[in-house]
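tl;dr need the bound structure. longer version: we got a ligand (fe (ii) ion) that a collaborator sent over and nobodys looked at where it sits. i said id run it. heres the input, straight from their email, havent touched it
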Amino acid sequence: MVDIHCHILPGLDDGSDNIEESVRMARLAADGGTTAIIVTPHSNIPDSFQNYCGEQYIEAFTRFESRLRDENIPLRIYPGHEIFASGDIASLIKERKLFTLCNSDYLLIEFAFRESPETAYRKLRELVSEGFVPVVAHPERYAFVADDDYAPLRMKDMGCLIQVNKGSLKGSFGRSAYMISHSLIRHRFADFVASDAHSPYMRTPYLADAHSIITDITSADYADRVLNVNPSKILKNEKII
Ligand SMILES: [Fe+2]
């Protein structure tokens, strides 16, 4: 499996606190059948985590990558960001301050939980018109999705893809996120399921349980598609249909 949303880089955001936690998370991921992770620290959040690409990001990435080698953990990592929807994202990507997912045309985008639908759709439309494919992180957690049954369809029609969180499927983010995430899976409307892991304790990168839940709701084939086939296409910047 390939995890496209994971706060595993140490010390950059509210995810892994230090390199030892990152190693523990990596072991859990590998034990659960994950072979590659696109690392996605929060970024571009006004007055909070900016995390633009620079010395700190590169140092955390290379240090973690060499620890994976030293510890013989069979896991590859690729660069990325979870990009908060604000400011001129396309310019920040062109200036190499923000990473798309593994330098592909796909970018992982998040909103404030109570973002207005107008602002959210305007941002997504802008990104599509710039040639990106926005992957909407955990839509099941946003008010504008909970308030509108057609929101996932609107985003897909625009050219966006949908990433559901493992934790939502398990009920970790409340009843509404649970119901919406199960509905997105049942209707085969999700394009990806990812861990959105923040630690080795609570929100972990172990994905085997997500595979079982999705298989129970739909089929093993669909679980493979959202956890492995589609995420692997991002690594090669291939089209996802
Ligand atoms: Fe996240």
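gonna send this back to them w/ a short note. The CA atoms of residues 18 and 59 lie 13 Å apart.
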